[in-house]
Amino acid sequence: MADNFKYYCFGFFILFFVLSARELFVHSESNNVKEIPSTKVGSGLFLGPTLKFRYCYSCGYQKAFQEYYTILQQKYPEIIVEGENYNPSGLSMIIAKALGVIKVALIVCIVSGVNILQYTGIPLQSWWSWCVDNKLYSCMMVFFLSNALEAQLVSTGAFEISFNDMPVWSKLETGRIPQPPELFQIIDNNLQFQTTVELKPGFAK
């Protein structure tokens, strides 16, 4: 019975380690990759206007982007719609990645029973003895608390929209995501302005 419990706990430890390593090395790369590839309409010789969304992935705004993506491709098939994660400031990202490294290191030390305090000259603390004696609970605490802190650091609350690289909406400034009619009006105004400019050969470019 004791051996089965030991293997059961070991399986949990491996799961924590794999999830932590995946978040550290895979999720950081996915922030720089567009969540939905841009769609280009036409033969490739003509590229329509570009509407770019930069949103907070950790805030759950990817779903809002996907809904807009579907609606816009139906209403404005000539527009290229792109989306990507809005990365936080450099310092916040560095701290979040550092927390990820510390999280993995702590879980490994707890599982292996290594006393990390002995390398700093600090006597063995009762809290570390508790962590080693209660590996399952301590690993869960480290995993979920670290994830909560990382999510808070990378959460920007952003939902920024630009039309041909010109900002047309900012949730950071307005405090909200635009309603579909508002975004349609913005797009129509920009398309009308672009058409007006193209019809005036002498217009300064």
List its traits.
205 residues; 57% helix; four-stranded mixed β-sheet; single chain; disordered N terminus; 7 helices
Molecular structure report:
- The chain is of the alpha+beta class and about 200 residues long.
- The chain is about 55% helix and about 10% strand.
- The protein is built from 7 helices and 4 strands, in the order αβαβαααββαα.
- It has a 4-stranded mixed beta sheet.
- The longest helix is centred in the first third of the chain and has 29 residues.
- The radius of gyration is 24 Å and the shape is rod-shaped.
- About 20% of the residues are buried.
Strand order of the largest sheet: 2-1-3-4
- Low-confidence spans: 1-8, 24-46
Amino- and carboxy-terminal Cα gap: 79 Å
Helix fraction? 55-70%
Biggest sheet overview: 4 strands, mixed
Report the sheet-strand fraction: 5-15%
The computed structural class is alpha+beta
Provide the succession of SSEs. HEHEHHHEEHH
Using the CA coordinates, give the radius of gyration: 24 Å
Task: Name the overall outline.
Answer: rod-shaped
Q: Taking all residues together, what is the mean pLDDT?
A: 77
What is the helix tally? Answer: 7
How many strands?
Answer: 4
Protein name: Selenoprotein T
Transmembrane segments: 7-25, 94-117
GO molecular function: thioredoxin-disulfide reductase (NADPH) activity
InterPro entries: Selenoprotein_Rdx-typ, Selenoprotein_T, Thioredoxin-like_sf
